[in-house]
Design a protein that fits this description.
Pfam families: Beta-prop_FAM234A_B. This protein has 7 helices and 33 strands. It has about 550 residues and is mainly beta. The structure holds 2-acetamido-2-deoxy-beta-D-glucopyranose (NAG) (8 copies).
């Protein structure tokens, strides 16, 4: 008896469930008395059929609604090329990308100086308390170059740091903070362009700004990261800490004791302690941010010290941490095996130093580097550092393996004064595409007058080591250049900011975007070595087929 019941349960498991439900004495309402004598099965199956068709109908209805009635969110069409011009203006070396209008296409931020803003917004300098002409910060749509917002934000040029988190009425937002000359400190909402706060800056009259705006962890416990600016006043480096959310100075100016030069860096040791590193008279000088904060406020600081670093530093005064061969020109944080390491470029050598104990890992001394190095992947998943040896006609591009300092690739590529820095973009094959400015034809000829020379942009990919592809010639003065992915994992684009060479002679300022894939078909193939694909078209096809990936 039990056997046959079980067998039936196996064949009709649901039926059995139904029975159990109906036999449940806890729910007598289900079984009407008048139905007792009738066979129950047909009614149950009818119910089931109705339920089945109802749910099927409901599903179809949902599919119908989703696919036909609710419109798809339209993917904004991104134009392959756009250009926005400002006449009688001046621009500065600043380009940033952020998704400002939240259309999932990165938009472009830049600065220009003019009497009035563009026609789309009739803002004038006096609206924000500046005299005319003044510096505007502007956001252009990455999709078509239309102006999203602009705002007068400084009198003359500025140091800008965008994407500084802000706390506005308990909602986190983001801002661009501008330290203007002379003496203004302004934050502009990244998404709307509204001025969030504006103060005169508290730097000394003759102070020259040494660092960019360095972003510190929250030291004043208001929930937003804070900012640090280093200045050089009277042969001494001074540090100013500002609240990132209000722009008010935290404490007083803290002295770093020694003189330094531009190129400071905020370094976080493996213990999570923050140190400011800056080049000073043939050495690398350092100072703990905790010490600076305590000195500025006369109180405690939530930051940490690293015992190892405190041992290396003179406890009484900030000063030399490490003696370098020659004056340090560039200082960079680079990813290391455990935490960040330091890449130092001095007048004598380029070297990698351990980020914790400052022990040199490798030194490459056969080069005179006059440009800040860039990083990229030459071999899959292996970082390489790209340096430029020499300038002008004697310039060479060198790729060094970041972990060993071994030379991977080198190529003579004469440069022109005013060439923008090189750039790299990760590609889907775990290598990088590289973008170099120069003039391949200059080899063996006289150096052209920089003013009427064309700057040529070359693209290089490690899978085609014997080939450069000349993507574009630009005769205007290029103030800033970026190779970016405006849409995640879609196409790579070049953004050019061109304008007058001197800030005293206003002229045409343009921001232009070109899709890399559109530039490739008209590119000129430059063969550096024998081998590689036979036809130029095959080379262009290889470059066209490159897929990029967004940096994590
Ligand atoms: C700037 O704006 C003011 C007032 O809106 C106008 O009178 C002036 O002609 C404008 N100047 C330029 C150069 O467009
Ligand atoms: C432009 O200026 C006029 C007059 O000053 C004002 O009425 C108008 O609202 C302004 N437009 C914008 C977009 O700010
Ligand atoms: C440019 O794109 C934005 C969205 O990114 C859109 O709102 C605007 O209408 C477009 N402008 C033009 C001139 O196509
Ligand atoms: C600023 O520098 C100039 C010359 O470099 C000097 O004459 C002047 O006294 C300095 N001012 C201050 C406030 O230090
Ligand atoms: C540490 O700094 C003090 C004051 O600047 C100086 O007198 C002393 O010589 C320094 N010590 C070392 C080891 O550099
Ligand atoms: C760097 O340039 C110098 C001078 O032009 C040259 O002597 C040296 O060999 C170059 N270094 C490398 C690694 O090619
Ligand atoms: C380079 O320029 C100098 C003078 O400017 C000229 O005498 C010389 O012939 C030029 N050389 C070449 C290769 O054009
Ligand atoms: C750049 O200019 C040179 C000579 O002026 C020309 O041969 C080359 O084709 C140009 N390249 C591109 C990409 O237009």
């Amino acid at each position: 008896m039990t056997d046959s019941k079980d067998l039936e349960a196996e064949i009709h498991p649901l039926k059995n469930e139904d029975k159990k439900l109906q036999e449940n004495p806890g729910k007598p309402a289900n079984t009407g008395d008048g139905l007792k004598g009738l066979p129950r099965q047909p009614r149950v199956s009818r119910c089931r059929t109705v339920a089945f068709f109802l749910s099927l109908f409901f599903c179809l209805f949902v599919v119908f609604v989703v696919s036909f009635i609710i419109p798809c969110p339209d993917r904004p069409v991104s134009q392959g090329v756009w250009r926005t011009d400002y006449s009688a203006a001046v621009t500065y070396d600043f380009l940033a990308t952020e998704d400002i209008n939240r259309d999932r296409i990165q938009d472009v931020l830049f600065l220009y100086k003019n009497t009035n803003g563009s026609n789309s917004f009739n803002l004038s300098c006096t609206d924000e308390g500046f005299s005319s002409p003044c510096t505007f910060v502007a956001a252009l749509s990455g999709a078509n170059g239309s102006v999203l917002w602009e705002r007068p934000a400084a009198q003359d040029g500025a140091l800008v740091q965008c994407s500084v988190p802000q706390l506005q009425a308990r909602r986190t937002s983001s801002a661009c903070v501008l330290v203007g000359r002379p003496g203004s400190f302004v934050a502009v909402d990244l998404f709307t362009g509204e001025t969030l706060w504006s103060h005169p800056s508290s730097f000394g009259r003759n102070a020259s700004i040494l660092s960019s705006l360095l972003q510190l962890p929250d030291v004043d416990a208001d929930g937003a990261p804070d900012l640090l600016v280093l200045t050089q006043e009277e042969k001494e480096v001074g540090g100013y800490i500002y609240s990132g959310s209000t722009g008010h100075q935290i404490g007083h100016r803290g002295s770093l004791g020694v003189g330094g030069t531009a190129g400071s860096l905020l370094h976080v040791t493996r213990a999570g302690a923050h140190y400011i590193l800056f080049p000073c008279a043939g050495s690398l000088c350092g100072c703990s941010v905790k010490g600076l904060h305590e000195k500025a406020t006369g109180g405690g600081s939530p930051l940490k010290r690293d015992p190892l670093w405190e041992g290396m530093l003179n406890a009484t005064a900030p000063g030399p941490l490490w003696r370098s061969p020659g004056a340090i020109h560039y200082l960079m944080n680079v990813p290391g095996k455990a935490g960040e390491d330091l890449l130092l470029v001095s007048s004598e050598a380029c070297m990698l130093v351990d980020g914790q104990d400052l022990v040199p890992r490798w030194t490459f001394s056969a080069a005179q580097v006059s440009r800040k190095p860039i990083l990229g992947h030459y071999k899959p998943d292996t970082l390489a550092v790209v340096i430029e040896n020499g300038t002008g006609v004697d310039r060479q591009i060198l790729f060094l393996d970041l972990s060993t300092g071994a030379l991977l690739w080198n190529q003579a590529l004469p440069g022109l004064p005013g060439d923008p820095p090189s750039a790299s973009l990760p590609t889907a094959d775990h290598r990088s595409a590289f973008f170099f400015w120069g003039l391949h034809e200059l080899m063996g000829t006289n150096q052209t007058e920089p003013r009427d020379a064309q700057h040529s942009l070359y693209m290089f990919h490690p899978t085609l080591p014997g080939v450069l592809l000349e993507l574009a010639n630009i005769s205007a003065n290029i103030v800033a250049f970026q190779a970016v992915l405006l849409e995640p994992s879609r196409h790579a684009a070049c953004v050019f900011l061109t304008g007058p060479t001197s800030p005293d002679t206003p002229g045409m300022v343009s921001v232009a975007k070109h899709k890399v894939r559109d530039l490739v078909p008209s590119g000129r193939v430059v063969r550096l070595a024998e081998g590689g694909p036979d036809s130029d078209q095959a080379v262009r096809d290889r470059f066209s087929r490159l897929r990029y990936r967004s940096e994590a």
